[in-house]
Amino acid sequence: MLLNLNILDLAVVDALDLDLDPGMSVLTGETGAGKSILLTALGLALGDRADSGYVRPGSKRAEINIEFDLSKAPLVKQWLADNELDDDSQCLIRRTVSEDGRSKAYINNRPVNLQTLQALSRQLVEIHGQHAHLTLLDGEEQRRLLDGFAGNQALLEQLNACYQNWRQAHKELQQLLKAGSDQAEREELLRYQLEELQQLDLENFDYQALADEHHKLANLGKILGVGQQQLDILYDNDQQSVADMLGHVIHALQELSQYAAELNGVAELLGDAEIQIGEATQQLRRFLENQEADPQQLAWLENQIGVIQSLSRKHKVQPEELPELAGRFSAELHNLSHSSERIEALHADCERLLNQYRQLAADLSSSRAQSGAELQQRISAAIKELGMPHGEFIVKLQTPENAEPQRNGLDQIEFLVSTNPGLPAKPLAKVASGGELSRISLAIQVTTSTDKTTPTMIFDEVDSGIGGGIAEIVGQKLRRLSRNRQVLCVTHLPQVAAQAHQHLFVAKNQNAAVTSSSVRRLSEEERVQEVARMLGGVTITENTLAHAREMLASGGAADAAD
């Protein structure tokens, strides 16, 4: 239940602290006094979108605080606990809007995002706006109302989850079937391309090693000729080889070292060089002796490198990337060759999910049909009480055969109404009288609210377009609705105001530099004056006051009679 509403610097309200009681509270005042700003404040606190226009001129920010008692709302308490936002049996919501339009939200003094705030608010307050009868013309809203009345939420969640799974499987299946005509050609191409690549011995593929070997064999003649020349220079030339000349130099320096000992070091270094030249000569000799021209190997290498370069140009990759390309081709071919298995599996999944969906949809249709019959009886009785003695409300439910699955079931739901005997029922959108539509809308809202668990309900001028005795009946219904929940009603009708347990009056103060609005609770005598004002207009007579007292007395007597 809503305990307190505190507003600071919001539009025409500079400061307001309002305590609310259980039962039915009405909010009245002259047109333009600022009644709507209270609902705006509640809407902001409950998660409506904010902008800088809500901040009172001259202020840096607007702030709204609301406090709820959760002692009779166990589901909300559990939700707060699950989200680590609990704080005993109270719930404090705070929303601030800065002058640049940015806003912040808090639940029990913990910052939360707007989605979290809205998720909580839906469990705390239900608001019925003054244009609810227009919203009611929408088919989806009619479906939502029926499912809410029937308590179909859990069944709807199961059905929609099944629908989503079926839709994904069905979409993938259609894509595979559509690609089926091109699949054979693609598989044939991939197999051909893989066969081309596999001739390269991909497991032992080393393009750089092949290129190096080819380069060597192609230049073997030059290698052997030039290599033999260097061997002669180093060692084999009897007249003037490097080895012989170096030997003479070492011998000469050794003889000189008896005169200059420093030359021993030079001779030793040259001796080491002589040894290394000997080893290098032996390695060169062995290399040249082991080289043998192989025209067939050279031809094979030239052919292999030609194939590699041709394939790399064909597939627009570097030669070294051909094994990786073959791997990709192989994976794609595997997927394509197994697509028939995937198609078969998807067919089975779609069939299973479709059967599951149709069973859930049948259960949903049965629930809607049963609850629809009860709902139309209740609403028909309600609209008769609201001045339409021949009114009949009908919930029309049609379920096409073999229809494709869709969200929220297969049923086509439409609310119909007949206002006069002998005339066929028509959709709500074709009801001629705006007053009749308002009364029907109110009957639906009150009837469908009876079974809800929301602790606080707000009705914003939903009684527009009615008056007289009908207005009194509306007030009685709202008062009756407040027996097991809190009801807050903005109204211009004295018949409705007289039924309230608590009467709040909104007044506008235009004497200050900036217009402001205030709200105060009326005493019993003040209530008489306000109901009389609503009845009599400018001039209030004793008869008007007497009538007001009688109306207020009848409001209290209704509880005693029940």
Automatic annotation (TrEMBL):
Keyword ATP-binding annotated:
yes
Domain of life, per UniProt, equals Bacteria
Kindly state a single biological-process term from the GO annotations of this entry. Answer: DNA recombination
Q: Which GO terms describe its molecular function?
A: ATP binding
Q: Which GO terms describe its cellular component?
A: bacterial nucleoid
Record key words, sorted: ATP-binding, DNA damage, DNA repair, Nucleotide-binding
**InterPro entries found in the cross-reference section:** DNA_recomb/repair_RecN (IPR004604), P-loop_NTPase (IPR027417), RecF/RecN/SMC_N (IPR003395)
Any keyword DNA repair? yes
| Alphabetized PANTHER family for the sequence | DNA REPAIR PROTEIN RECN
Family under the similarity heading: Belongs to the RecN family.
- Cross-referenced NCBIfam families: PRK10869.1, recN
Q: Per its database record, what is this protein's job?
A: May be involved in recombinational repair of damaged DNA.
Q: What is this protein called?
A: DNA repair protein RecN
